[in-house]
Amino acid sequence: MQFPNVDPIPIPAPIWLMKVLSLLTLALHFFAVQILIGSLVAVIYFSLKARSNGPAAQGAALTVARRLPIVMTYVINLGVPPLLFAQVLYGRALYTSSILIAVQWIGVVFILMGCYWLLYRISDRTTYGKPVHWHAIGALLLAAMVGHIYAANMTLMLRPEVWQQMYAKTASGLQSAPHDPTAEPRLMFVLIGGFLVGGFWLTLHSKLKTIESGAAELLRSTGATFAVIGALGELATGFWVYTVQPGEVQNGMHTPLYQIGIVVWGVGFALALLMAGVVLARKASGLLVTILGSLGAFLGIAGAVIVRDGIRDVTLLQKGFDVWKRQEASNWFVICIFLVLFVAGLGAIGWLLSVMKAAKPIPEQVNA
Ligand code: HEM
Fold first, then answer.
1. Which of 150, 180, 313 should be mutated for ligand 1, with most atoms under 8 A from CB?
2. What's the number of domains the chain is made of?
3. In a designed cystine with 224, which of 124, 168, 204, 279 is the match (CB 3.0 to 4.6 A)?
4. Structural domain of residue 337, as residue ranges?
């Protein structure tokens, strides 16, 4: 057995419930990450474009940039739940890999702080029409670095065969995970999705009544182009992620749940591609098309998250770790409190959104 034996605390809720919540929150996390990545690429483009096409590009940059710090709160808050679920369910694998690359892993906190600081600077500078492309390039690189470390750890946790050797090399935590051919495709899948979800984020904001028409048109056309590139990219990188898996893992994926995941992935991204094409061809740029496209993108991500979970479970099972055989001692009192608070939280968010909707809109203008 290559996995550490000690797991003193049984799982406090049914494994299926933990899995459902983990997959749902992870899909939402990826959605938020992709809004962040797409927005940063767009801000770089608008900031460079502002040199030739001043006000419209500055207006578009401002619209996207001032929402960046809020988007980051969603990235982080929707990342915490799947992290907790992953630790509870796969602790013996995930703790081990995290300790082996401890310096990088803890470094995520500081990289995130740097990225967050840049987002505030970008938001502030665009308010005064100042260029922000260097800041946005910096923030994008830092975000990609965080994604890279996550992909490295989430693949290292699947390779108990290299742990011993890594630990023998150094116990300081000052090392990177050895090269894994499946890590880059997984990272690229999430990052390229930035064009898709970020693209629809732009077309959605082109419908705002508080921005000028030049900025709105730029947001619509850029968003639609991004979304087409992103949808094609998701189909290509998703296929890539699957094909780099070892043959025995691919064989283990021939179960109804994972096959459904693959279908949902394909149908979701195909729908997103269709809707992005409709907006690009100017057949319609209505809210409904954007919402349908975003829904397609979310479905695609949800399908991919199910397949990703399958890749993890099948890989770990072949190496002697069966997550479904974890000892379970459900504490239903705590689970009920959790569900009540969860629903109350959703209600509070709905109420906040209704207050926001009723508020008088403020024009979004650059104070040059
Ligand atoms: C700029 C910020 C971030 C980016 C770009 C990012 C990107 C990514 C990427 C690319 C993956 C996929 C890794 C893979 O499939 O191999 C991932 C997974 C994950 N991320 Fe993030 N992430 C960010 C911030 C965070 C934060 C702050 C948290 C938590 C506090 C978080 C929690 C997670 C978790 C838990 C997973 C994997 C869950 C699982 O395997 O069950 N992320 N993230």
1. 150
2. 1
3. 279
4. 15-358
Give the Cα separation of 146 and 149 in Å (integer): 5
Give a yes or no: residue 364 inside a domain.
no
How far is 367 from 128, CA to CA, in rounded Å? 5
Predicted pLDDT of residue 138: 98
Nearest CA to ligand 1 atom 21: 79
Distance from Cα 156 to the centre of ligand 1, integer Å: 14
Residue 9: inside a domain: no
Over the chain, what is the mean pLDDT?
95
Does 8 map to a domain?
no
Assess if residue 284 is contained within a domain. Answer: yes
Query: What would the pLDDT profile of 267-295 be if each residue is shown by its tens digit?
Result: 999 999 999 999 999 766 689 999 999 99
